[in-house]
TrEMBL record:
Pfam families in alphabetical order: DNA_pol3_delta2 (PF13177), DNApol3-delta_C (PF09115)
Name by which UniProt lists this protein: DNA polymerase III subunit delta'
PANTHER family tied to this protein: DNA POLYMERASE III SUBUNIT DELTA (PTHR11669:SF8), REPLICATION FACTOR C / DNA POLYMERASE III GAMMA-TAU SUBUNIT (PTHR11669)
Keyword list, A-Z: DNA replication, DNA-directed DNA polymerase, Nucleotidyltransferase, Transferase
Biological source species: Zobellella taiwanensis
Gene Ontology MF annotations: 3'-5' exonuclease activity; DNA binding; DNA-directed DNA polymerase activity
């Protein structure tokens, strides 16, 4: 188990052993913290045939869980873009049956925020009339998208972000050279940071931001920068963080920079002044907002980004 999960796991384990957990639990926290593993560990513990020593790892139930073939454990939401009403109805039907091994039933709904309204309402009916020793575990990185009536019927367990030093130490144990900047870019998530570093995204970020900050000197790089920013939405987040750091430097604020490995770029951009940086930052925020799905008519992302980059280029040229 990931070390940062221990503060949440210990009270959960104690709750199982003392039989005081509710029939519905919500494990919430940002993506990339291992909530899925935590839910699986909790399910194994609830189904273990030796409650006072759960999870024992030796009983038949623990062996079945380890093999991924326990008939009293159901998992929904691992695949697909949404969780429909049919999946929830089937889950409710199965949960209403007697446990085959006689030690309760457990259902895990991963990415619970993907439930349609109809599915969520169907699940609500199940929560209002829980069956026997059935336990439902909802896992969500966006709990604000869940129905308030659904949340109110669950015991809520927050999986917090780990301490920076703990996260960096764990990443080092995985064989990657992580920096506070890489962790910051991934919102403090060790698992997302590990994937980010293993795919070489950190090198791409440094190259892209260096080229962007140099647009005032080398205008020919503009098409390359534009193409790089359009590859993935997160690339615009990199620029946003750099602009925020530059604004912080321009204002003389003493708080730590988000991208401490790009201080030289932040200082270069800071020379454009707080007002120009504020306008560029606001323009980029609006651009990112309009690029999100469901924001009205589809927009020409390339054209809009090109216009923003030309404003940045003009600002840097007249610095």
């Amino acid at each position: 188990m990931y070390p940062w999960l221990t503060p949440v796991w210990q009270p959960l384990l104690q709750g199982v052993r003392e039989r005081r957990l509710g029939h519905a639990l919500l494990l919430k926290g940002m993506a990339g913290l291992g909530k899925r593993e935590l839910a699986g560990r909790l399910a194994t513990t609830l189904l273990c045939q030796h409650t006072n020593n759960a999870p024992c790892g030796m009983c038949h139930a623990c062996e079945l869980n380890a093999a991924g073939s326990h008939s009293d454990l159901q998992v929904v939401g691992r695949e697909g873009r949404s969780i429909g009403i049919d999946a929830i109805r089937e889950l409710s039907r199965i949960m209403g049956e007697s446990a085959r091994l006689g030690h309760g039933k457990v259902a895990i709904i991963e990415r619970a925020e993907l439930m349609t309204d109809a599915a969520a309402n169907a699940l609500l009916k199940t929560l209002e009339e829980p069956a026997g020793e059935a336990t439902l575990i909802l896992v969500s990185s966006q709990p604000e998208r869940l129905l308030p009536t659904l949340i109110s019927r669950c015991q809520q367990w927050l999986v917090p972000l780990p301490d920076t030093q703990l996260a960096l130490a764990w990443l080092q144990e995985q064989g990657v050279a992580a920096t506070p900047a890489a962790l910051s870019i991934n919102q403090g998530s060790p698992l997302q940071t590990l994937d980010y570093l293993n795919t070489g995204a950190d090198d791409k970020r440094l190259q892209l931001l260096t080229a962007l900050a140099g647009l005032g000197e080398t205008a020919s790089h503009l098409p390359t920068v534009q193409a790089g920013l359009l590859e993935q939405p997160v690339h615009l987040v990199w620029v946003q963080l750099l602009l925020q750091d530059a604004l912080q430097v321009a204002l003389g604020a003493k708080a730590p920079l988000k991208l401490d490995d790009c201080q030289h770029l932040s200082r270069r951009l800071a020379g454009t002044g707080p007002l120009a940086l504020h306008e560029l930052n606001s323009g980029l925020l609006e651009l990112r907002r309009r690029l999100q799905p469901g924001q009205g008519r589809p927009m020409n992302a390339g054209l809009q980004l090109s216009q923003w980059l030309r404003r940045l280029q003009q600002t840097l040229t007249h610095e």
